Amino acid sequence: MNESVLTAEQILDAAEQVLRRYGPAKTTVVDVARALDVSHGSIYRHFPSKAALRDAVAARWLHRVSKPLRAIVEEDGPAPERLRRWFDALLAIKRAKILDDPELFATYHGMIMDARSAVEAHVEELVGQITEIIDDGAKRGEFAAADPRRTAEALFQATVRFHNPMHAPEWRDPNIDRDFDALWALVTAGLGATGKTKARPHQ
Amino acid sequence: MNESVLTAEQILDAAEQVLRRYGPAKTTVVDVARALDVSHGSIYRHFPSKAALRDAVAARWLHRVSKPLRAIVEEDGPAPERLRRWFDALLAIKRAKILDDPELFATYHGMIMDARSAVEAHVEELVGQITEIIDDGAKRGEFAAADPRRTAEALFQATVRFHNPMHAPEWRDPNIDRDFDALWALVTAGLGATGKTKARPHQ
DNA sequence: TAAATGACAGATATTGATTTTTGTTATTCA
DNA sequence: TGAATAACAAAAATCAATATCTGTCATTTA
User: What pLDDT, on a 0 to 100 scale, did the predictor assign at position A116?
Assistant: First the structure.
Protein backbone atom coordinates (compact mmCIF):
# COMPACT_ATOMS: atom_id res chain seq x y z
CA MET A 1 0.00 0.00 0.00
CA ASN A 2 2.72 2.49 0.99
CA GLU A 3 6.26 2.62 -0.27
CA SER A 4 7.69 5.61 1.62
CA VAL A 5 8.84 5.32 5.22
CA LEU A 6 6.35 4.33 7.86
CA THR A 7 4.89 7.24 9.85
CA ALA A 8 3.04 7.43 13.16
CA GLU A 9 0.05 8.87 11.27
CA GLN A 10 -0.13 5.81 9.03
CA ILE A 11 0.04 3.53 12.05
CA LEU A 12 -2.80 5.41 13.74
CA ASP A 13 -4.92 5.17 10.58
CA ALA A 14 -4.29 1.45 10.35
CA ALA A 15 -4.91 0.95 14.06
CA GLU A 16 -8.25 2.72 13.78
CA GLN A 17 -9.22 0.61 10.81
CA VAL A 18 -8.28 -2.65 12.52
CA LEU A 19 -10.03 -1.53 15.70
CA ARG A 20 -13.20 -0.93 13.72
CA ARG A 21 -13.04 -4.42 12.27
CA TYR A 22 -11.92 -6.50 15.25
CA GLY A 23 -12.94 -4.44 18.30
CA PRO A 24 -10.64 -3.39 21.12
CA ALA A 25 -10.40 -6.80 22.76
CA LYS A 26 -9.28 -8.64 19.64
CA THR A 27 -6.99 -6.04 18.15
CA THR A 28 -3.31 -6.90 18.44
CA VAL A 29 -0.19 -5.05 17.48
CA VAL A 30 0.48 -7.84 15.02
CA ASP A 31 -2.89 -7.17 13.36
CA VAL A 32 -2.04 -3.49 12.94
CA ALA A 33 1.35 -4.38 11.50
CA ARG A 34 -0.24 -6.86 9.13
CA ALA A 35 -2.66 -4.18 7.88
CA LEU A 36 0.37 -2.06 7.00
CA ASP A 37 2.31 -5.03 5.68
CA VAL A 38 5.23 -4.46 8.04
CA SER A 39 6.64 -6.42 10.94
CA HIS A 40 5.18 -5.60 14.34
CA GLY A 41 8.64 -4.56 15.53
CA SER A 42 8.34 -1.51 13.27
CA ILE A 43 5.37 -0.29 15.26
CA TYR A 44 7.50 -0.22 18.38
CA ARG A 45 9.83 2.23 16.68
CA HIS A 46 6.97 4.78 16.76
CA PHE A 47 5.08 3.81 19.92
CA PRO A 48 6.82 2.52 23.03
CA SER A 49 3.99 0.14 23.90
CA LYS A 50 0.59 -1.06 22.85
CA ALA A 51 -0.90 1.16 25.58
CA ALA A 52 0.80 4.21 24.06
CA LEU A 53 -0.64 3.38 20.65
CA ARG A 54 -4.09 2.89 22.18
CA ASP A 55 -3.79 6.27 23.98
CA ALA A 56 -2.81 8.00 20.75
CA VAL A 57 -5.83 6.57 18.93
CA ALA A 58 -8.06 7.64 21.82
CA ALA A 59 -6.61 11.15 21.84
CA ARG A 60 -7.27 11.52 18.14
CA TRP A 61 -10.83 10.35 18.53
CA LEU A 62 -11.47 12.73 21.42
CA HIS A 63 -9.95 15.58 19.47
CA ARG A 64 -12.59 15.05 16.79
CA VAL A 65 -15.17 15.76 19.48
CA SER A 66 -13.63 18.91 20.91
CA LYS A 67 -12.46 20.52 17.68
CA PRO A 68 -15.84 21.51 16.16
CA LEU A 69 -16.89 22.96 19.51
CA ARG A 70 -14.10 25.50 19.41
CA ALA A 71 -15.89 27.26 16.56
CA ILE A 72 -18.79 28.00 18.88
CA VAL A 73 -16.47 29.36 21.55
CA GLU A 74 -15.07 31.82 19.05
CA GLU A 75 -18.39 32.97 17.64
CA ASP A 76 -19.72 36.44 18.37
CA GLY A 77 -23.04 37.00 20.06
CA PRO A 78 -24.47 36.65 23.56
CA ALA A 79 -22.53 34.25 25.77
CA PRO A 80 -25.64 32.60 27.29
CA GLU A 81 -26.82 31.55 23.84
CA ARG A 82 -23.36 30.43 22.85
CA LEU A 83 -23.10 28.41 26.03
CA ARG A 84 -26.36 26.61 25.33
CA ARG A 85 -25.39 26.06 21.72
CA TRP A 86 -22.04 24.67 22.84
CA PHE A 87 -23.72 22.09 25.08
CA ASP A 88 -26.30 21.23 22.44
CA ALA A 89 -23.46 20.63 20.00
CA LEU A 90 -21.54 18.49 22.47
CA LEU A 91 -24.59 16.37 23.15
CA ALA A 92 -25.42 16.11 19.45
CA ILE A 93 -21.89 14.94 18.60
CA LYS A 94 -21.93 12.30 21.31
CA ARG A 95 -25.36 11.05 20.38
CA ALA A 96 -24.61 11.06 16.67
CA LYS A 97 -21.62 8.83 17.34
CA ILE A 98 -23.62 6.35 19.37
CA LEU A 99 -26.57 6.32 16.98
CA ASP A 100 -24.39 6.03 13.93
CA ASP A 101 -22.54 2.95 15.07
CA PRO A 102 -23.24 1.73 18.61
CA GLU A 103 -20.64 -0.99 18.36
CA LEU A 104 -17.88 1.38 17.31
CA PHE A 105 -18.94 3.73 20.08
CA ALA A 106 -18.65 0.88 22.58
CA THR A 107 -15.27 0.06 21.10
CA TYR A 108 -13.97 3.55 21.69
CA HIS A 109 -15.62 3.84 25.06
CA GLY A 110 -14.02 0.61 26.23
CA MET A 111 -10.67 1.74 24.92
CA ILE A 112 -10.93 5.18 26.45
CA MET A 113 -11.64 3.73 29.88
CA ASP A 114 -7.98 2.70 29.97
CA ALA A 115 -6.61 5.89 28.45
CA ARG A 116 -6.80 8.04 31.55
CA SER A 117 -4.35 10.72 30.52
CA ALA A 118 -5.99 11.20 27.11
CA VAL A 119 -9.35 11.63 28.81
CA GLU A 120 -7.94 14.07 31.33
CA ALA A 121 -6.54 16.21 28.53
CA HIS A 122 -9.88 16.04 26.73
CA VAL A 123 -11.83 17.14 29.81
CA GLU A 124 -9.31 19.91 30.37
CA GLU A 125 -9.90 21.11 26.79
CA LEU A 126 -13.69 21.04 27.15
CA VAL A 127 -13.73 22.76 30.54
CA GLY A 128 -11.31 25.30 29.11
CA GLN A 129 -13.73 26.07 26.30
CA ILE A 130 -16.64 26.47 28.72
CA THR A 131 -14.46 28.73 30.86
CA GLU A 132 -13.78 30.95 27.85
CA ILE A 133 -17.47 31.37 27.13
CA ILE A 134 -18.34 32.11 30.75
CA ASP A 135 -15.39 34.45 31.07
CA ASP A 136 -16.50 36.32 27.99
CA GLY A 137 -20.08 36.43 29.27
CA ALA A 138 -18.86 37.84 32.59
CA LYS A 139 -16.96 40.59 30.78
CA ARG A 140 -20.08 41.46 28.80
CA GLY A 141 -22.11 41.56 32.00
CA GLU A 142 -24.24 38.62 30.87
CA PHE A 143 -23.07 36.29 33.63
CA ALA A 144 -22.52 36.95 37.31
CA ALA A 145 -19.83 34.30 37.66
CA ALA A 146 -17.28 35.18 40.31
CA ASP A 147 -14.91 32.38 39.31
CA PRO A 148 -15.45 31.33 35.66
CA ARG A 149 -13.13 28.36 35.86
CA ARG A 150 -14.85 26.84 38.88
CA THR A 151 -18.24 27.60 37.39
CA ALA A 152 -17.23 25.86 34.17
CA GLU A 153 -16.14 22.80 36.13
CA ALA A 154 -19.42 22.76 38.03
CA LEU A 155 -21.38 23.08 34.81
CA PHE A 156 -19.44 20.27 33.19
CA GLN A 157 -19.99 18.03 36.19
CA ALA A 158 -23.66 18.92 36.53
CA THR A 159 -24.24 17.81 32.94
CA VAL A 160 -22.13 14.67 33.17
CA ARG A 161 -25.12 12.40 32.65
CA PHE A 162 -25.67 13.91 29.23
CA HIS A 163 -22.16 13.75 27.82
CA ASN A 164 -20.18 11.10 29.68
CA PRO A 165 -20.24 7.85 27.67
CA MET A 166 -20.62 5.93 30.93
CA HIS A 167 -24.18 7.20 30.91
CA ALA A 168 -24.76 6.47 27.23
CA PRO A 169 -27.38 3.75 27.88
CA GLU A 170 -29.53 6.46 29.50
CA TRP A 171 -29.47 8.53 26.30
CA ARG A 172 -32.05 6.19 24.82
CA ASP A 173 -34.57 7.50 27.32
CA PRO A 174 -37.20 9.41 25.32
CA ASN A 175 -37.30 12.07 28.07
CA ILE A 176 -33.62 12.87 27.78
CA ASP A 177 -34.20 16.27 26.12
CA ARG A 178 -36.80 17.23 28.66
CA ASP A 179 -34.39 16.24 31.41
CA PHE A 180 -31.64 18.34 29.96
CA ASP A 181 -33.93 21.35 29.64
CA ALA A 182 -34.96 21.06 33.29
CA LEU A 183 -31.34 20.77 34.35
CA TRP A 184 -30.37 23.69 32.15
CA ALA A 185 -33.07 25.88 33.65
CA LEU A 186 -31.70 25.12 37.09
CA VAL A 187 -28.06 25.89 36.38
CA THR A 188 -28.72 28.80 34.05
CA ALA A 189 -30.47 30.62 36.84
CA GLY A 190 -27.39 30.00 38.94
CA LEU A 191 -25.27 31.72 36.33
CA GLY A 192 -27.23 34.89 36.61
CA ALA A 193 -28.36 34.49 33.02
CA THR A 194 -31.86 35.30 31.85
CA GLY A 195 -32.65 31.63 31.20
CA LYS A 196 -34.80 32.56 28.20
CA THR A 197 -32.63 30.55 25.80
CA LYS A 198 -34.76 28.19 23.76
CA ALA A 199 -34.12 24.49 23.51
CA ARG A 200 -32.54 23.31 20.32
CA PRO A 201 -33.83 19.90 19.24
CA HIS A 202 -31.12 17.38 18.41
CA GLN A 203 -31.82 15.56 15.20
CA MET B 1 -28.72 -22.98 63.14
CA ASN B 2 -32.46 -22.93 62.37
CA GLU B 3 -35.01 -25.58 63.03
CA SER B 4 -38.24 -23.89 61.97
CA VAL B 5 -39.26 -23.64 58.29
CA LEU B 6 -37.00 -21.84 55.89
CA THR B 7 -37.98 -18.21 55.19
CA ALA B 8 -37.05 -15.77 52.42
CA GLU B 9 -35.54 -13.52 55.11
CA GLN B 10 -33.19 -16.26 56.23
CA ILE B 11 -32.14 -16.91 52.67
CA LEU B 12 -31.39 -13.23 52.12
CA ASP B 13 -29.33 -13.10 55.30
CA ALA B 14 -27.35 -16.13 54.24
CA ALA B 15 -26.94 -14.81 50.69
CA GLU B 16 -25.55 -11.55 52.01
CA GLN B 17 -23.14 -13.40 54.27
CA VAL B 18 -21.90 -15.66 51.49
CA LEU B 19 -21.63 -12.71 49.14
CA ARG B 20 -19.43 -10.89 51.62
CA ARG B 21 -17.14 -13.89 51.87
CA TYR B 22 -16.92 -15.05 48.26
CA GLY B 23 -17.78 -11.97 46.20
CA PRO B 24 -20.51 -11.78 43.55
CA ALA B 25 -18.62 -13.73 40.89
CA LYS B 26 -17.95 -16.78 43.04
CA THR B 27 -21.23 -16.94 44.94
CA THR B 28 -23.45 -19.83 43.85
CA VAL B 29 -26.91 -20.86 44.88
CA VAL B 30 -25.36 -24.05 46.22
CA ASP B 31 -23.09 -21.95 48.47
CA VAL B 32 -26.07 -20.11 49.90
CA ALA B 33 -27.90 -23.37 50.45
CA ARG B 34 -24.87 -24.88 52.15
CA ALA B 35 -24.66 -21.88 54.53
CA LEU B 36 -28.24 -22.66 55.56
CA ASP B 37 -27.62 -26.40 55.56
CA VAL B 38 -30.42 -27.09 53.09
CA SER B 39 -30.49 -28.36 49.53
CA HIS B 40 -30.27 -25.72 46.82
CA GLY B 41 -33.67 -26.82 45.54
CA SER B 42 -35.21 -25.29 48.67
CA ILE B 43 -33.97 -21.88 47.64
CA TYR B 44 -35.92 -22.17 44.41
CA ARG B 45 -39.10 -22.54 46.43
CA HIS B 46 -38.64 -18.93 47.60
CA PHE B 47 -36.92 -17.32 44.61
CA PRO B 48 -37.69 -18.28 41.03
CA SER B 49 -34.09 -17.76 39.87
CA LYS B 50 -30.65 -16.76 40.99
CA ALA B 51 -31.29 -13.36 39.39
CA ALA B 52 -34.40 -12.87 41.55
CA LEU B 53 -32.42 -13.68 44.67
CA ARG B 54 -29.71 -11.26 43.59
CA ASP B 55 -32.30 -8.53 42.98
CA ALA B 56 -33.82 -9.06 46.41
CA VAL B 57 -30.42 -8.72 48.08
CA ALA B 58 -29.78 -5.56 46.06
CA ALA B 59 -33.15 -4.08 46.99
CA ARG B 60 -32.46 -4.66 50.67
CA TRP B 61 -29.07 -3.04 50.40
CA LEU B 62 -30.48 -0.01 48.58
CA HIS B 63 -33.22 0.32 51.16
CA ARG B 64 -30.55 0.73 53.84
CA VAL B 65 -29.38 3.79 51.92
CA SER B 66 -32.75 5.46 51.44
CA LYS B 67 -34.26 4.70 54.85
CA PRO B 68 -32.15 7.01 57.06
CA LEU B 69 -32.70 9.86 54.58
CA ARG B 70 -36.41 9.78 55.18
CA ALA B 71 -35.84 11.16 58.67
CA ILE B 72 -34.39 14.32 57.14
CA VAL B 73 -37.38 14.69 54.81
CA GLU B 74 -39.68 14.62 57.80
CA GLU B 75 -37.74 17.06 59.95
CA ASP B 76 -39.04 20.55 60.64
CA GLY B 77 -37.10 23.64 59.68
CA PRO B 78 -36.23 25.49 56.48
CA ALA B 79 -36.43 23.37 53.35
CA PRO B 80 -33.21 24.76 51.79
CA GLU B 81 -31.24 23.60 54.82
CA ARG B 82 -33.01 20.27 54.88
CA LEU B 83 -32.30 19.80 51.19
CA ARG B 84 -28.59 20.43 51.66
CA ARG B 85 -28.53 18.18 54.70
CA TRP B 86 -30.30 15.45 52.72
CA PHE B 87 -27.67 15.52 50.00
CA ASP B 88 -24.83 15.70 52.49
CA ALA B 89 -26.28 12.63 54.18
CA LEU B 90 -26.68 10.77 50.89
CA LEU B 91 -23.09 11.51 49.95
CA ALA B 92 -21.84 10.60 53.40
CA ILE B 93 -23.66 7.25 53.34
CA LYS B 94 -22.27 6.37 49.92
CA ARG B 95 -18.75 7.41 50.80
CA ALA B 96 -18.86 5.67 54.17
CA LYS B 97 -19.77 2.45 52.41
CA ILE B 98 -16.91 2.71 49.96
CA LEU B 99 -14.35 3.79 52.54
CA ASP B 100 -15.45 1.19 55.04
CA ASP B 101 -15.03 -1.76 52.71
CA PRO B 102 -14.16 -0.98 49.08
CA GLU B 103 -14.33 -4.61 48.09
CA LEU B 104 -17.82 -5.08 49.49
CA PHE B 105 -18.86 -1.85 47.80
CA ALA B 106 -17.56 -3.15 44.49
CA THR B 107 -19.40 -6.37 45.16
CA TYR B 108 -22.71 -4.60 45.60
CA HIS B 109 -22.07 -2.20 42.77
CA GLY B 110 -21.32 -5.04 40.39
CA MET B 111 -24.40 -6.86 41.55
CA ILE B 112 -26.63 -3.81 41.30
CA MET B 113 -25.57 -3.20 37.71
CA ASP B 114 -27.68 -6.23 36.81
CA ALA B 115 -30.59 -5.41 39.08
CA ARG B 116 -32.23 -2.74 36.96
CA SER B 117 -35.68 -2.84 38.49
CA ALA B 118 -34.33 -2.64 42.02
CA VAL B 119 -32.29 0.41 41.06
CA GLU B 120 -35.25 2.04 39.34
CA ALA B 121 -37.33 1.65 42.50
CA HIS B 122 -34.48 3.06 44.54
CA VAL B 123 -34.08 6.12 42.33
CA GLU B 124 -37.84 6.60 42.42
CA GLU B 125 -37.71 6.59 46.22
CA LEU B 126 -34.86 9.09 46.37
CA VAL B 127 -36.36 11.47 43.81
CA GLY B 128 -39.65 11.17 45.69
CA GLN B 129 -37.95 12.29 48.88
CA ILE B 130 -36.32 15.26 47.16
CA THR B 131 -39.68 16.16 45.66
CA GLU B 132 -41.25 16.22 49.13
CA ILE B 133 -38.62 18.61 50.43
CA ILE B 134 -38.90 20.93 47.43
CA ASP B 135 -42.67 20.77 47.54
CA ASP B 136 -42.62 21.71 51.18
CA GLY B 137 -40.15 24.51 50.48
CA ALA B 138 -42.39 25.86 47.74
CA LYS B 139 -45.37 25.90 50.10
CA ARG B 140 -43.30 27.82 52.66
CA GLY B 141 -42.23 30.28 50.01
CA GLU B 142 -38.60 29.24 50.33
CA PHE B 143 -38.35 27.83 46.81
CA ALA B 144 -39.66 29.21 43.53
CA ALA B 145 -40.04 25.76 41.95
CA ALA B 146 -42.89 25.64 39.46
CA ASP B 147 -42.75 21.86 39.12
CA PRO B 148 -41.21 20.25 42.23
CA ARG B 149 -41.10 16.79 40.71
CA ARG B 150 -39.20 17.86 37.62
CA THR B 151 -36.93 20.05 39.70
CA ALA B 152 -36.18 17.11 41.96
CA GLU B 153 -35.28 14.98 38.96
CA ALA B 154 -33.02 17.69 37.60
CA LEU B 155 -31.33 18.05 40.97
CA PHE B 156 -30.79 14.33 41.25
CA GLN B 157 -29.33 14.17 37.77
CA ALA B 158 -27.15 17.25 38.23
CA THR B 159 -25.54 15.63 41.28
CA VAL B 160 -25.16 12.19 39.71
CA ARG B 161 -21.37 12.37 39.81
CA PHE B 162 -21.48 12.58 43.57
CA HIS B 163 -23.85 9.76 44.38
CA ASN B 164 -23.89 7.30 41.48
CA PRO B 165 -21.50 4.42 42.25
CA MET B 166 -20.41 4.44 38.62
CA HIS B 167 -18.52 7.60 39.54
CA ALA B 168 -17.13 6.21 42.80
CA PRO B 169 -13.51 6.25 41.59
CA GLU B 170 -13.83 10.04 41.30
CA TRP B 171 -14.78 10.31 44.96
CA ARG B 172 -11.14 9.85 45.90
CA ASP B 173 -10.38 13.22 44.34
CA PRO B 174 -9.37 15.54 47.21
CA ASN B 175 -11.35 18.37 45.57
CA ILE B 176 -14.60 16.44 45.62
CA ASP B 177 -16.16 18.58 48.40
CA ARG B 178 -15.11 21.80 46.71
CA ASP B 179 -16.66 20.51 43.49
CA PHE B 180 -19.91 19.70 45.19
CA ASP B 181 -20.04 23.12 46.85
CA ALA B 182 -19.55 24.84 43.48
CA LEU B 183 -22.25 22.70 41.91
CA TRP B 184 -24.57 23.32 44.83
CA ALA B 185 -24.11 27.08 44.56
CA LEU B 186 -25.12 26.86 40.90
CA VAL B 187 -28.28 24.81 41.35
CA THR B 188 -29.33 26.42 44.61
CA ALA B 189 -29.53 29.76 42.85
CA GLY B 190 -31.74 28.07 40.29
CA LEU B 191 -34.11 27.00 43.01
CA GLY B 192 -34.76 30.56 43.98
CA ALA B 193 -33.19 29.95 47.37
CA THR B 194 -30.58 32.24 48.84
CA GLY B 195 -27.30 30.38 49.06
CA LYS B 196 -27.09 31.74 52.58
CA THR B 197 -30.11 29.69 53.70
CA LYS B 198 -31.31 32.33 56.12
CA ALA B 199 -34.50 31.06 57.59
CA ARG B 200 -37.64 32.95 56.62
CA PRO B 201 -39.80 33.29 59.70
CA HIS B 202 -42.65 30.87 59.07
CA GLN B 203 -46.00 30.71 60.88
C1' DT C 1 23.27 4.36 8.93
C1' DA C 2 18.62 4.87 9.95
C1' DA C 3 14.78 1.96 9.27
C1' DA C 4 13.00 -2.41 9.27
C1' DT C 5 13.21 -7.18 10.24
C1' DG C 6 12.85 -11.76 12.44
C1' DA C 7 13.93 -14.59 16.15
C1' DC C 8 13.20 -14.90 20.92
C1' DA C 9 11.53 -15.12 26.16
C1' DG C 10 8.07 -14.24 29.12
C1' DA C 11 3.28 -12.94 29.56
C1' DT C 12 -1.26 -13.50 27.97
C1' DA C 13 -5.02 -15.64 25.44
C1' DT C 14 -7.37 -19.61 23.35
C1' DT C 15 -9.19 -24.08 23.24
C1' DG C 16 -11.57 -28.10 24.25
C1' DA C 17 -12.13 -31.73 27.68
C1' DT C 18 -13.94 -31.95 32.36
C1' DT C 19 -16.37 -30.23 36.32
C1' DT C 20 -19.64 -27.30 38.46
C1' DT C 21 -23.80 -24.79 38.53
C1' DT C 22 -28.57 -23.69 37.44
C1' DG C 23 -33.11 -24.77 37.30
C1' DT C 24 -36.70 -28.74 36.99
C1' DT C 25 -39.19 -32.51 38.71
C1' DA C 26 -40.38 -36.95 40.58
C1' DT C 27 -39.98 -38.68 45.13
C1' DT C 28 -39.45 -38.55 50.22
C1' DC C 29 -40.36 -36.65 54.67
C1' DA C 30 -42.68 -35.00 58.78
C1' DT D 1 -50.24 -31.99 52.33
C1' DG D 2 -46.89 -28.65 52.06
C1' DA D 3 -41.91 -28.44 52.55
C1' DA D 4 -37.66 -30.35 51.45
C1' DT D 5 -34.84 -33.36 48.85
C1' DA D 6 -32.06 -35.88 45.38
C1' DA D 7 -31.33 -36.96 40.85
C1' DC D 8 -31.01 -35.05 36.43
C1' DA D 9 -30.24 -32.27 31.78
C1' DA D 10 -28.61 -28.22 29.92
C1' DA D 11 -25.81 -24.20 30.49
C1' DA D 12 -21.82 -22.15 32.33
C1' DA D 13 -17.37 -22.14 34.58
C1' DT D 14 -12.81 -24.19 35.21
C1' DC D 15 -8.39 -25.89 34.02
C1' DA D 16 -4.32 -27.25 31.85
C1' DA D 17 -2.20 -27.88 27.45
C1' DT D 18 -1.29 -25.20 23.44
C1' DA D 19 -0.90 -21.17 20.73
C1' DT D 20 -0.53 -16.26 20.28
C1' DC D 21 1.02 -11.87 21.63
C1' DT D 22 4.06 -8.23 23.57
C1' DG D 23 8.20 -6.09 23.84
C1' DT D 24 13.42 -6.54 23.04
C1' DC D 25 17.43 -6.77 20.39
C1' DA D 26 21.03 -8.49 17.35
C1' DT D 27 21.09 -8.69 12.44
C1' DT D 28 19.72 -7.30 7.76
C1' DT D 29 18.32 -4.11 4.22
C1' DA D 30 18.15 -0.18 1.16
Answer: 87
